[in-house]
Design brief:
Length: 209
Amino acid sequence: MIKFLDASVFKELFRIIYEMKVVVGSLNPVKVEATRLVFKKFFGEVEVYSVKVETSIPAQPIGIEQVLRGAVERAYQALNSMDGSDYGVGLEAGLIPYPGTITGYLNHQICALVDRELKVTFGSSMGFEFPSKVIERLERKEVKEAEEVMEELTGIEKIGEAIGAIGYLTKNHFKRLDLSIQAITSALIPRLNPNLYTSRWPRVGEILR
């Protein structure tokens, strides 16, 4: 006698076999939650994991090259940390020089997505300026990263794992989670529309060499 699987059982087996596996190169709960929210929105149920990684860039990245490199290193290490991973996600925030700004910099969160073929796509959050005191103390090398000064100014411990500087500066109207969502979503755009991005995509080795 031929026995047919119940539809719900078949659906669960399909989910187990084909559910997308995404690994975030950070233990920061904000980055992990942002990844889960974005991938679930576009792909349905996904498995999201987080791993601790080490990067070659300073604690406070300054300049687009350092920020991009940090994001790619995070994504690449995350992808390689687990067998069967579909994507590695790297989120790195840093100061990008902008002419005409009050402090000389805008802070951006950059996302790098690396897939099994080691192709890389990038995305960015909106940019904003840190308070002058933050930049001044960084330039005088009195602190290693902006978060140290923001903790002093706000009294919020580990502010980068909570609302972020953006949360405090916008009176809680935007939070770090929002910036992470923006960066991940924009990094996904070429992957959601591959027919519109027909040029050769960069690969990890080209960026990290």
